[in-house]
Amino acid sequence: MTALTHTQLQTFRHLLQQREQQLRQELASAHQEQEQQAEDAEDMPPEPDANQTHETADREVRYAEAVRDQQELQDVRAALQRLDDGSYGECVVCGKAIAVPRLQAFPSAKRCIQCQTKLEAKG
């Protein structure tokens, strides 16, 4: 069981819910933008010009951002689930408490800093 106080848990729940809402809005906006770009692409000439090449690069960046946002949304939802089941703040690898400063900086953290460092070192 986590050593976080009720107030801390409520604060983290609020932060996670806010981030979930923000990510959902960003993803919806990105989806609408993709649909608009698809419609616009139908009107483009078949030969790409320099402007279209730049637009393609921009689309690729926005796609990568959307993929990152989708993964973060999954992580936020998983953190909310851990709040519901009482395991929030516990490392999913070793079971030890995740330090409060880490949770404050990264509320959806699922690993303590030691386990996260080991994971990242593996590549």
Give the arrangement of secondary structure elements.
Elements lengths: L5 H37 L7 H36 L14 H6 L7 H10 L1
Helix pairs in contact: 1-2
What are the salient characteristics of this protein?
123 residues, mainly alpha, 4 helices
Question: Can you tell me about this structure?
Answer:
72% of the residues lie in helices and 0% in strands. Helix 1 packs antiparallel against helix 2 (50-85). The chain has helices at residues 6-42, 50-85, 100-105, 113-122. The longest helix is centred in the N-terminal third of the chain and has 37 residues, at 6-42. The radius of gyration is 20 Å and the shape is elongated. The chain contains 4 helices and no strands. The model has no long low-confidence stretch (mean pLDDT 89). The two termini are 30 Å apart. It has 123 residues and is mostly helical.
Strand content: under 5%
Count of beta strands: 0
**Cα-based radius of gyration, to the nearest Å:** 20 Å
Order of helices and strands: HHHH
- What is the mean predicted local confidence, pLDDT? 89
Question: How would you summarize this macromolecular structure in one to three sentences?
Answer:
The protein is mainly α. It is built from 4 helices and no strands.
